[in-house]
Sequence to fold (129 residues):
Amino acid sequence: MILFAVYAAAVWYLACRWRRRWPGFAIPVIAASLAAALAGPLGSVGERTGLVPFRVLLHAEAALVGGIGLFIASLPRARITGGLCFHCGYDLKGLAAAAHLCPECGTQFPPARAPHASTPPAPARSRRA
Ligand SMILES: [Zn+2]
Fold:
C-alpha cells in the first residue's frame, strides 16, 4: 500500500519538476499506463481473500497518478514575482507602468499583478534640512 503512495509522489514530483515541458506530460501518461498494465498480471491478487481486488486498486492508482500528474504538469512554471516574465523569463524591471505585456514574448499581465507595479521605495531623505 505504501508503494502506491511513493509511486504517486515520485510521479507527481517529476511532473512538477518538468511542468509545462514535454517530459512533464509524458511521465504521468507513462506511469499511468504502467500501473494499468500491471492490473492484468497482478489483478487476481486479493480476489481469493475477499479483499478489494488488486485490479481495482491499480486502475484507481493509474487514474489518480495520470490525472493529477497531468494537472501538475499544466501548472505555470514560475510566478510573475521577481520582475521576470512567467512565460519566457525576460527581465521586466524598469518597463513603463502602462505597458502590461512582455516585450520579448508578448505575454499580457493583469495590471494588478504586473511585475513593474511594485516600484522600489524611494531613497530615504536625511532629516537635516
Ligand atoms: Zn515574456
In short: The chain has a mean pLDDT of 79. The chain has two domains: 2-73, 79-116. The chain is about 45% helix and 0% strand. The pocket of zinc ion is lined by residues 85, 87-88, 90, 102, 104-105, 107 (CB under 6 Å).
